[in-house]
Amino acid sequence: QVQLVESGGGLVQAGGSLRLSCAGSGSIFRIDDMAWYRQPPGKQRDLVADISSAGSTNYADSVKGRFTISRDNAKNTVYLQMNSLKAEDTAVYYCYAGIIYYSSSGYRTSRSWGQGTQVTVSS
After folding, report:
1. Cα(56)–Cα(21) distance, integer angstroms
2. Could you tell me if 112 and 97 are in contact, meaning their C-beta atoms sit under 8 angstroms apart?
3. Are 55 and 37 in contact (CB under 8 A)?
4. What distance in Å separates the CA atoms of residue 4 and residue 23, rounded to the nearest whole number?
């Protein structure tokens, strides 16, 4: 019914920047909270940053001052601007969204995840 598609990952040198995007598609009525998580090799998936529908943001301590989360509600898209990247930022990055969508049986909610995008920072 709905899906999230990520883009923007890749290989970058330490100190560089990347911008991730995640666009929702399908019969979307509204998207509430949106977020970015990351999962380094062999470790658990952790929250990087989240943003409410009103634009309130929250960041993991490890990325404060370096990463910025934003969203474009008209495009159902969330972004993650990553600056001053470090080797320890290397991970698969996943976007998340709480989506309300239309279905043949009425409105439904979905806790949706993107497919993941690899970010590799070389030191």
Report:
1. 18
2. yes
3. no
4. 5
Express each pLDDT in 59-101 by its tens digit: 999 999 999 999 999 999 999 999 999 999 999 999 999 999 9
Q: Which of 77, 68, 59 is nearest to 114 (CA)?
A: 77
- Residue 77 is predicted with a pLDDT of 98
Q: Which two tokens stand for residue 52?
A: 């409410």
Residue 47 corresponds to which amino acid? Answer: L
User: What pLDDT shows up at residue 12?
Assistant: 98
Among 92, 89, 9, 114, residue whose Cα is nearest residue 45: 92
To the nearest whole number, what is the mean pLDDT of the chain?
Answer: 97
The pLDDT of 14-43, averaged and rounded, is 97
The amino acid occupying position 52 is: S
Contact indicator for 79, 67 with CB cutoff of 8 Å: no
Distance of CA 111 to the CA centre of its chain: 13
17 three-state secondary structure: coil
- d(CA 80, CA 26) in angstroms, rounded, equals 22
